[in-house]
Amino acid sequence: MSKRAIHLYPWDGGTESDQDPPEHVYCGTDGVMTDDQLTNYWQYVTCKRCLTIREKELAARAADDRDKKVKLFDEAQAITITLGHRNISTAIKALIRERDELRHERDNLREDRDGLLETGAHLL
Ligand SMILES: [Zn+2]
What we know:
mainly alpha; 2 domains; two-stranded parallel sheet; binds zinc ion
């Protein structure tokens, strides 16, 4: 007798309101299966249908992630273009430099103010 395929049988014990195990294995194959043909862990799965479905799901998820990344990039670029930069990393570097310059300027102004307050303290 050949070794029978091991299917993914995802069940985490259920919730309080739903403790029933799933009716089907991951790939939907019907039939009576022994406990050693069911696993909760991908590393033990040998069923080709289960593995193919998993592969497609992972590929779809990766494509989805790429689409989201592209959308975020486009959004970010739309912002930086209005700031005069087509290149996002150039824009970020320019903004960081500008922020640092403004901080420096702010600190100088504070020092000037404190100096003036001290000098003119006797006038208050
Ligand atoms: Zn399967």
